[in-house]
Design goal:
By secondary structure, this protein is an alpha+beta fold. It has five helices and ten strands, in the order ββαββαβααβββαββ. The strands form two sheets. Strands 3-4-2-1-5 form a five-stranded mixed beta sheet, covered by helices on one side. The termini are far apart. The model has no long low-confidence stretch (mean pLDDT about 90).
Length: about 180
C-alpha cells in the first residue's frame, strides 16, 4: 500500500495542509497536528518528521517547495532549540509514542503511552529536551519537577548528545 504525499504551506510557525482525505488520515491515524477547518495544522517538528518520512511536501507562500535543509534553517530561526527538540520528537515517534506540545503545562512535550491517542486518555509524561552539555540549577530542576507533580504526570528529561542520540531519565519524588 503506497501512501499519498500530503502538501502543505509554511505559515509563520506552523505548516497548514491542504484539505484532503490524506491529510485528515494523517491526523486520524497517528494524531499528527490538529484539525482546523478541514485542514491539518502541523507543528514545525511534526512537519520535519513527515518530510523525512516522505509523507509531506512543504511549499512557501509562492508555491515553491522548501527542501529539507532550508526547512531546518527556517525552523531553527523561529525556535532556537529546534534541533534538540526535534531529536527527541523523532526518537519518541520512532518508538511508537504520540508526542504533543505541552506549553500550557510549562513543558516542551507531553507524551502518551503507546496505543493511547490524545483525547482518549491523559499523557503519562511531560518531557524536557536538553543538550548533554547544558546545565540546570536546582531551582530550575525543582520547578520542572513541581510542574510534573502538579499535572499528575511523570517528569522525563531527554538528554541529546552530539550525535543526536537521546537518553531518557525519569524523575520521581520519593518519600523515605
Amino acid at each position: 500500500m503506497t501512501r499519498e504525499t500530503v502538501n502543505g504551506v509554511f505559515a509563520e510557525e506552523r505548516v497548514i495542509t491542504e484539505a484532503t482525505d490524506e491529510a485528515r488520515e494523517l491526523y486520524n491515524q497517528s494524531r499528527y497536528g490538529s484539525m482546523v477547518d478541514s485542514k491539518v495544522q502541523l507543528s514545525l517538528l511534526e512537519s520535519l518528521y513527515l518530510i523525512e518520512k516522505g509523507r509531506l511536501k512543504v511549499a512557501d507562500g509562492r508555491g515553491k517547495e522548501i527542501p529539507y535543509e532550508k526547512f531546518v534553517k527556517k525552523a531553527t530561526r523561529l525556535e532556537p532549540n529546534f534541533w534538540i527538540r526535534y531529536c527527541v520528537f523523532k526518537d519518541m515517534r520512532n518508538r511508537g509514542y504520540i508526542i504533543k506540545t505541552a506549553l500550557k503545562f510549562g513543558a516542551d512535550f507531553r507524551v502518551y503511552d503507546r496505543g493511547v491517542k490524545p483525547g482518549d486518555d491523559h499523557a503519562r509524561w511531560i518531557v524536557y529536551p536538553v543538550h548533554e552539555g547544558s546545565t540546570l540549577t536546582w531551582y530550575e530542576f525543582a520547578a520542572k519537577n513541581r510542574v510534573a507533580h502538579s499535572t499528575k504526570k511523570r517528569l522525563m528529561m531527554a538528554v541529546v548528545d552530539g550525535e543526536g542520540d537521546v537518553s531518557y531519565w525519569e524523575i520521581r519524588w520519593l518519600r523515605p
